[in-house]
Amino acid sequence: MLWFLILHILSLLVWTAAVLYVPILVVHTAQEQEHYHRLPTDIGSLARLVFTHVASPAAIIAIIAGTLVFVVGEKVTFWLFVKLTLVSLMTASHASMGLLITRLERNELRNLKTFSWILFVLTSSCIVAVVWVVLAKPAIPEAFPWRL
Fold first, then answer.
1. Domain that holds residue 101
2. Domain membership flag for residue 141
3. Based on CB atoms within 10 Å of each CB, which residue in 20, 82, 118, 123 is the most buried?
4. What would the pLDDT profile of 89-144 be if each residue is shown by its tens digit?
5. CA-wise closest residue to 131 among 87, 99, 91
6. 105: Cβ–Cβ under 8 A, 6 or more apart, which residues?
7. What is d(CA 122, CA 125) in angstroms, rounded to the nearest whole number?
8. Which N-terminal stretch is annotated as signal sequence (predicted)?
9. In this structure, what are the phi and psi dihedrals at residue 106, rounded to the nearest 5 degrees?
10. Position 20 in a domain
């Protein structure tokens, strides 16, 4: 189980770093496209490269390794469900970044910077919340309608 946990933490670090970098790359590339008529290369954007070759594989490894830690450890706690909910939000944010990259490459720059920063703040908030939940391991609230 320790190896799964180490793999989970390392891949989570790579995923979070890459997923925070993608909106910054989108904004930077959008600013460059406003100044230049055409990108100098035809390979796509650097944001797509980071998204498809770094962030997405790291996300898959982090989720699989985290699931294995959960299955092998056989622990069902309240904080774990809160963490899984936050990770689901991070995954939705990750998928939304793919849509931003598609809009960027289609040269649809209207509101792209705003959406990039919204996703950056949402993802950052989820990351901080996940770290807090994992470290604090809050107990189930008394007003909660059901027990685990």
1. 2-136
2. no
3. 123
4. 999 999 999 999 999 888 888 898 999 999 999 999 999 999 999 999 888 776 66
5. 87
6. 44, 45, 48
7. 5
8. none
9. -85, 0
10. yes
Q: Are 29 and 41 in contact (CB under 8 A)?
A: no
- This prediction's pTM: 0.82
Spell out the residues 6+ positions from residue 119 whose beta carbon is closer than 8 angstroms to its own. Answer: 23, 93, 96, 97, 100
Would you state the structure tokens that stand for residue 42, as one six-digit string?
A: 């035809």
Q: What is d(CA 86, CA 110) in angstroms, rounded to the nearest whole number?
A: 29
Considering only CA atoms, which of 86, 26, 13 is closest in space to residue 55? 13
Q: Would you state the structure tokens that stand for residue 5, as one six-digit string?
A: 């946990």
Cα distance between residue 89 and residue 2, in whole Å: 26
Helix, strand or coil, per DSSP, at residue 115: helix
Instruction: Write out the two tokens for 118.
Output: 């919204």
Handedness of CA 131, 135, 137, 141 (dihedral sign): negative
* Number of domains comprising the chain: 1
Distant-in-sequence, close-in-space partners of 50: CB < 8 Å, separation ≥ 6? 18, 21, 22, 25
For the segment 24-48, what is each residue's pLDDT rounded down to a tens digit?
998 888 877 655 445 445 556 788 8
Q: In 3D, which of 122, 56, 47 has the Cα closest to residue 95?
A: 56
In a domain, 144, yes or no: no
**Three-state secondary structure call for residue 83:** helix
